[in-house]
Amino acid sequence: MDATVPHAERGRRVAPLADLTAIVFDDARLLAFGRLAAIFLVPLTLALVVLLFGTGPVPRRNWYGEILGNDFTQVWVAGRAALEGRAAESYDLARHLENLKAAFGPDCRFAWHYPPVFLLPSAAMAVFDPQVGYLGWCALSGALFFFALCRAAGRLDLAFIAFAHPLVFTNLAYGQNGLFTAGLMTLGLVLLDRRPALAGLCFGLLAFKPHFAMLAPLLLLVSGRWTALASCAVTVIVTCLVSLALFGTEPWTGFLHSLSYTNRLILEDAIAGLDLNASAFGAVRLLGGSIAMAWTAQGIVSLVVLAVVLRLWRGTFSSELRAAACLAAAPLLSPYVPVYDLVPLVPAMLFLGLAAAKRGGLAAHERILLAFSPFASLVRIVADTTGFALGFVLALATFACIAWRAGFWPRGLTLRAGAVS
């Protein structure tokens, strides 16, 4: 630094850097920054979703000129077909694409891969006009997720900070169902010790997303949570029977027949783009690896993650760590994890912070994870331009921090600072 620069001037230049460093290396500063960011980001997120993505100058188009509701369009179209007695059409790709084209134009092309139980909420949304349905979908999913965060945190400010995460905006802007998934998982974990039957209900309602839903029953089984497990099973059976009663057997037959081409379209052909998939499978494919290499990597990651989370759930660890491990493990176990399905990492990090606060504060690497996780919003941009699977790395780093907090490797490797207050 130039010695001729006055000391006061040098101090003013260094101060912003020192403040930024303090945010990363001090719990209280990080919390204060999070509160300030949330005050700005939450209203901005809601305003953008309602005004920019939820309205537009042309019917069924937003202000970008894109399809209003984006991914929600297939939910609405599948729901409308179900209401009109044509539920099986959603599992006929050619017919489903024709329905999308008729409703939203030729550029609306999404394959429907959900089991028929998901036709129940889809039909409920299709009662309304697409714009009302999309905004209602966002309102319901956002409200459920925020309620779950409040129950998990026990503090409004922490829930507000978590809700400000860009992954929440990603789900709302896409019109996706990730907030329902993460909200139900979080509520189930919060209620597990006090209201096991209600917790099982929450886990059972996840049946619309089988690749995420399968983990909770397994953890309930190995930890001997019989009431919650029974409630989960009954919920799944009842929702399946209701869908059969309302829509018949043809959607189920179509769903089962569609599984093979779903695997080919999503994983092998990567029709949604290699930059979207934030799994171990996707990371290998993004780097140019073969299908065999991708499955091998996914298998290794899944086995390691499953072994850790099972060990944690069978031990005497805190409820916060068990919840964090379950939420962080779910995206890592699936070979297909689009960016919006990374949102369970948000409550996972919340639970991690709560566990750390009980033990004297965050470790340095945990604080860095919390400070830099909002960059998850850049997952697709980073993956597309550099080939770096940022989403997968974020998921892996989150799970690694939880495993470290549970004592799965030496704690003397990092520094600690003051507790959250």
Give a brief description.
With 421 residues, this protein is mainly alpha-helical.
Give an overview in words.
The chain has helices at 7-25, 27-53, 72-83, 93-104, 119-126, 130-153, 156-163, 166-174, 178-191, 196-204, 210-213, 215-222, 226-247, 250-268, 280-286, 291-314, 319-333, 345-358, 364-372, 379-386, 390-405. The chain is globular. The chain has one domain (20-413). It is built from 21 helices and no strands. Helix 2 packs across helix 7. Mean pLDDT is 88; it is low at 413-421. The longest helix is centred in the first third of the chain and has 27 residues, at 27-53. The chain is mainly alpha-helical and 421 residues long.
Binned strand content: under 5%
| Major beta sheet summary | none
Low-confidence stretches: 413-421
Q: Average pLDDT, to the nearest integer?
A: 88
Structural class: mainly alpha
Termini separation: 37 Å
Mass-distribution shape: globular
Number of helices: 21
The sequence of SSEs as H and E is HHHHHHHHHHHHHHHHHHHHH
What fraction, in percent, of the residue positions are helical?
55-70%
* Rounded radius of gyration (Å): 22 Å
Number of domains: 1
Number of strands: 0
Task: Describe the secondary-structure layout.
Elements: H1 7-25, H2 27-53, H3 72-83, H4 93-104, H5 119-126, H6 130-153, H7 156-163, H8 166-174, H9 178-191, H10 196-204, H11 210-213, H12 215-222, H13 226-247, H14 250-268, H15 280-286, H16 291-314, H17 319-333, H18 345-358, H19 364-372, H20 379-386, H21 390-405
What are the key terms here?
globular; 68% helix; 21 helices; 421 residues; 0% strand
